## 1
Amino acid sequence: MKKIFLAPIFLTLFYSLHSCSSDALQPQPIYQVPTYGNMSLHSTTDTINLPLAEGTTTGLGSISYFTMNDSSYVATFDKATFTLTLYTFPSGNIIKAIPLKKWLTGIKLEKTSVCVRNFDSIIICTRTHIVLFDTSSRIKNKIEIPKGQSLAFSNETPLIIKGHILYTNNIKAVAENSLPALKRYKLIEGFDLSLNDQKSYYNLPKVYTSDYYGYSFLRYGYCLNEKGNFVFSFPADTSLYETNLAEYHKSYNARSKFQTEDIKPVSKKDIEDGQSYYEYSIRYSYGPVFYDPAKKWYLRMAKQKLSDSSVYAKNRSRSRSMIILDQNFKIISEAPAPDHIDLFSLFFTRDGQLFARVDNNRKPYVSLVRVEYAEYIDSSGMASLKK
């Protein structure tokens, strides 16, 4: 029996596992003839520099965008000092710096992730607890994570709250060399705060349960669309998966035009010999998927493979592209993505704008740049972007 602590009273959390069978039928990908236009992401000259709060660093664990009372804000979490800083947006003025170590006494802040929904709803996840509190430091809910589990949320695997259920990403280590373990693995943990119940949801797709790929290919991502469905992107799978975590389950072709060969499985021997990351690097793969609520588009990152020599080079960054799909999951464009934009930090504002973090050469602030969709033109070996 586990416990959910609701300040100031204690409620019991019954831990149970409910989900579709791991042997559930795999949906056949819906194929729509891709357009593969040349639209890509382009950074503008509009940059917002967020000053650092005293004693903090630029080593951010997350950036949260939220709105309240018709105003917009961002929050940054400094994973080095465990400080949460709230800013007005887009002006970038500091509202408050919250030292989580002082506020959350008695909780070890190991492997901490943070999501700010508004001033009254700040959620952090540690190795042992999920804690909901507000900017006055009042703890509103404290959920004890069952032993043996490891949960987290990030920009590419966000915290989702639907009604009274809180959904978070399961990052518990799974045996990458065991197909039975991979078949049993669940991706999402849901906490029903009204029924005091916990459920595990959603299995890996068949490509992961019939062959080995290794740990690096298990870094999946998801987003939530306007229908309230989860959309998953898996590194070794060319399809996107849309599901309500219950009876609705569809997959759609989302293959990169730059992928010239299939993503082959990794041998069990290579995995056991510690070669997972090398084998991942020399194969094509896919990154997270983001949902643009204004345009109702899906943005899926694709990564090109490295050569053997490039894997061991000092600068071994992989070329990336951004696949754009419309609201019906038809591919409408794909083009190279700019290297200087942190694509994992993309977020959309209430008025339909897109922002991402960019490198500012270690200056004492966090730089966010506004990003636009633009046509990518490649002529005579010279790459440029045309609005």
## 2
Amino acid sequence: PPEELAGMTKRIPAGYIGTVDDTVAAVRYLLSDEARYVNGANIQISGAWGV
């Protein structure tokens, strides 16, 4: 229901519920040369929900 989504959105520091594009951006980074030194990382795509 819309009221549940509104309540959930208020608790997300980024101010919105993530989209597929938010996840794709992280995947693109991990597949890029810029991430060549990254390994064993846990990347949370959560809008800072867990901070």
## 3
Amino acid sequence: MKRFLLAAVLVSGVFLSCGEKNKDRAVAFSSVDVHEEATLAFEPSELEIFRKAYPDVVFESSFVSEKEDFLVHVKVEGREADFYWSKSRFLPGQELPNAKDFAPLLYAYPVHTPDPEFFSEQDVISIKEYASEENRKNGVRTPMFLYNLIYESDKRGPLETHIVKTEFLGKRVNVHERISQALLRVEKKILELAETDPEVKSFVTELDHAEGYAWRSIRDNENWSFHALGTAVDLIPRGVKNKNVYWAWRRDKDPENWMLLPLERRWMPPEKVTLIFESEGFIWGGKWLIWDTIHYEYHPELLLYS
């Protein structure tokens, strides 16, 4: 029987499936070849992914022999900082000794939604351990240092100068200005498709409201939410018809078997809607093994990497 290979990767507070990469991925982002670990003579090939994902951000690297790592000088909109590559963690020098406490920013975003029907017993054990209260509080964290520079989000005051009010599918939502144009392109594609696709039209009609910027951390977790950067959007329908939208709410009802909930018992946007979001650089929380099916998050680097 087909099985998913689970990889314990924590990014944005989620344990994700690193499924087999699909050459036929229907998104606008072209795959970037990821080569072997960089030698001393060449910078990590994955650094080019960040250049493509954030074309207005300058990434300049130099090898630091005493650290056995590359120092990356990052410049954006008059702000600049130095980070050590640390296998895509982008850590400031003082955090380099604590690298094991942080997860790499790059991980394999699944092409398809992981299906519990194919989980092995070990898969279930791994997911349960990852989602435990102990691991949620004390597990590896997402290193926010690079994102805080790009979005000027390390302090609330400066960040909120970049938060803009916009509308998405007729609903008001506040987001970071850096993602506003991508979100508008998503809206345009969805509305065009809704003219001919009944399922997409129903999704638009049944949308109750949208939630974007919110200065907060992730629930039951020390990781900072990407809602706090204004780079995540939740799309809340008027009703979910007894279906489930968030893993932790399901866990509260069924602590032992929540991860085995069949896909058909989760509320999910139409697949075509998710493909549109992915074509503009947004990942969908419904593909996380600890799933959040109303959640989209701007991470073009992950779509280029996967």
